[in-house]
């Protein structure tokens, strides 16, 4: 069985219960496989990155036919506005930056047999290039950090990089340590280019944080909020508090 998110954002939890921690979010039009069911909860794996977790069955919309599945799987346009409103099945739905718009023709897109008008700004996934990464990423400046978040109302470090790279047609894995496997190593901060990913580790050497390198040895990342800080071979230097906050582990070039 497969399904589609038809709400603004749906929490994906570590265990089947509302009190369990949120480890991810589905955005509107995200699709997933249903792996199992338990007491009104569905264990899912998202199409775009295979990430697993639990959603409540009352937030599940099934995709019943092959044409429906093919439609939502096609390379979408991506919402550029931070927040937009659409009308879907007689109700108003708020959709956010990074949301997919399947079969978008510049005015309408299609989801679960319905034609939906979208009056905001959207770009075709893959048409944005690496020179636009700072402009896209900077739209999230000031967004609060939220563990498992992927929207302008709250986002975590790897959710942030995943959403930004979606504009370039790159399906990044969900977690920072998974993203660190992608791409080619950049040996020195002085050799970085805008759009490179910098990864940071804890005292045990485990990768726990990621950010997007900008020009002039700066980095944009989600830590407390989405912010821009200085980057050097030691790590991230937060000028507001006058100290290093993250220890650099590795830099990778994905695109």
Architecture overview:
By secondary structure, the chain is mainly beta. It folds into two domains: 2-124, SH3 type barrels (Roll), CATH 2.30.30; 130-141 and 157-253, endopeptidase domain like (from Nostoc punctiforme) (endopeptidase fold (from Nostoc punctiforme)), CATH 3.90.1720.10. It is 11% helix and 44% strand. The protein has four helices and 23 strands. The longest helix has 10 residues, at 157-166. The chain is globular and about 50 Å long.
What does the average pLDDT come to?
A: 94
The helix fraction, in percent, is 10-25%
Tally of DSSP β-strands:
23
What would the principal axes of the Cα set say about the shape?
globular
Number of helices: 4
Give start-end ranges of low-pLDDT stretches: none
Largest sheet: 6 strands, antiparallel, barrel
| Share in β-strands | 35-45%
CATH class of the largest domain: Mainly Beta
Number of domains: 2
CATH architecture level-2 label of the largest domain = Roll
Rg result: 18 Å
Write out the CATH superfamily name of the largest domain.
Answer: SH3 Domains
Cα end-to-end separation: 34 Å
Question: What is the H/E order?
Answer: EEEEEEEHEEEEEEEHEEHHEEEEEEE
Order of strands in the sheet with most strands: 18-19-20-21-22-23
CATH topology of the largest domain: SH3 type barrels
Structural class computed from helices and strand pairing: mainly beta
């Amino acid at each position: 069985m497969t399904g589609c998110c038809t709400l603004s954002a749906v929490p994906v939890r570590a265990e089947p219960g509302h009190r369990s921690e949120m480890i991810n979010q589905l955005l509107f039009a995200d699709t997933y496989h249903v792996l199992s069911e338990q007491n009104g909860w569905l264990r899912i794996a998202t199409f775009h990155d295979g990430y697993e977790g639990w959603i409540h069955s009352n937030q599940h919309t099934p995709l019943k036919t092959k044409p429906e599945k093919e439609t939502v799987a096609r390379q979408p346009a991506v919402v550029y506005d931070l927040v937009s409103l659409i009308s879907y099945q007689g109700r108003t739905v708020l959709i956010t930056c990074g949301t997919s718009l399947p079969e978008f023709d510049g005015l309408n897109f299609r989801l679960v047999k319905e034609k939906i008008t979208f009056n905001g700004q959207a770009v075709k996934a893959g048409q944005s290039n690496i020179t636009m990464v700072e402009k896209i990423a900077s739209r999230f400046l000031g967004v609060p950090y939220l563990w498992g978040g992927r929207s302008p109302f709250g986002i975590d470090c790897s959710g942030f990089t995943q959403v930004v790279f979606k504009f370039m047609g790159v399906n990044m894995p969900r977690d920072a340590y998974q993203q660190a496997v992608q791409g080619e190593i950049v040996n020195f901060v002085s050799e970085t280019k805008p759009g490179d990913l910098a990864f940071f580790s804890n005292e045990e050497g485990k990768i726990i944080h990621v950010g997007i390198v900008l020009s002039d040895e700066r980095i944009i990342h989600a830590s407390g909020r989405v912010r821009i800080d200085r980057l050097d071979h030691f790590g991230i230097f937060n000028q507001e508090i006058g100290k290093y906050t993250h220890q650099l582990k590795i830099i990778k070039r994905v695109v």
